[in-house]
């Protein structure tokens, strides 16, 4: 029987490359993003190229009720998920008190609340079937506070903490939870989050989304609990555990600061 993976945030970047790998592996896909046109292009390309079934659901996950609407679509078509990947996420660079409050709420809603709601709606069905995989896309930002991206880093700390705890609760059920924590990756994310002026990005070599997706795919298949991707990300995650908190904060601030 064919398997099905639902992936959010598939119209670009890491989500698009992850969707491609699941398609190559023969999974049918349920793909979720806001842009109907881009989703349509992904659906048409993947159906043609990989001969799989693709259900495209256009939803803004930062809006109330979006996860429920997605699950309703699945139930209507009697689609059972083998894999759920909560990938869609946004960031915002700049001083916290100068950021648009609406954007801050949108970010928390998408990065933390929608991920939690979708997982809460789908996990019980996986547990009752005794199989399934959940993957949440965290970040190197999950491991320490991020001055100039304070809320984004906090949402990613939430993703790591939540996913690790969930994986323990799920042990013995046949369902796994994996938190994928990539380092900086060359996607539209930097532009969308206005990070171009940050020291963390400018002139730095970034990971490719293809590389990140390949390692993420392997980790999800192996049911790893935490998968940190990239040498610098691994080093930073390690340093955040061994250095005093005040020093971690200062280093993070100097690395994130805007170049004037
Ligand atoms: N790039 C990095 O340096 C990096 C590093 C570590 C972790 N991450 C994480 O990796 C994940 C993917 O990011 P990316 O770098 O691949 O970014 P990206 O290229 O900007 O892709 C983001 C995807 O999310 C979708 N999306 C955005 N807002 C949405 C909303 N409200 N509802 C539904 N879908 C929405 C976008 O599609 P639409 O615009 O069509 O909705 C797009 O498909 C994010 O969780 C990010 O935090 C990124």
What does this structure look like?
With 260 residues, the protein is of the alpha/beta class. The protein has one domain: Rossmann fold. Helices cover 50% and strands 15% of the residues. It contains nine helices and seven strands, in the order E-H-E-H-E-H-E-H-E-H-E-H-H-E-H-H. It has helices spanning 13-24, 36-50, 66-76, 101-129, 150-169, 189-192, 209-222, 231-242, 245-256, and strands at residues 4-8, 28-33, 54-58, 83-86, 132-137, 175-182, 226-229. It has a seven-stranded parallel sheet with strand order 3-2-1-4-5-6-7, sandwiched between helices. Strand 2 (28-33), helix 2 and strand 3 (54-58) form a beta-alpha-beta unit. Helix 1 (13-24) packs across helix 7, helix 3 (66-76) packs parallel to helix 4 (101-129) and helix 4 runs parallel beside helix 5. The longest helix has 29 residues, at 101-129. The protein is globular. The termini are far apart. It binds NADP nicotinamide-adenine-dinucleotide phosphate. NADP nicotinamide-adenine-dinucleotide phosphate binds at residues 8-15, 33-35, 38, 60-62, 87-90, 110, 137, 139, 182, 184-185, 187-189, 192.
Largest sheet: 7 strands, parallel
| CATH architectural designation | 3-Layer(aba) Sandwich
**Terminus-to-terminus distance:** 57 Å
Number of helices: 9
User: By CATH's scheme, which homologous superfamily applies?
Assistant: NAD(P)-binding Rossmann-like Domain
**What integer value in Å does the Rg equal?**
18 Å
Q: Output the structural class.
A: alpha/beta
How many beta-strand runs?
7
Oligomerization state of this entry?
A: single chain
The outline comes out as: globular
- State the order of secondary-structure elements, H for helix, E for strand: EHEHEHEHEHEHHEHH
Low-pLDDT residue spans: none
Helical proportion, percent range: 40-55%
Mean pLDDT over the residues: 96
Strand content: 5-15%
Spatial order of strands in the largest sheet: 3-2-1-4-5-6-7
Structural domains: how many: 1
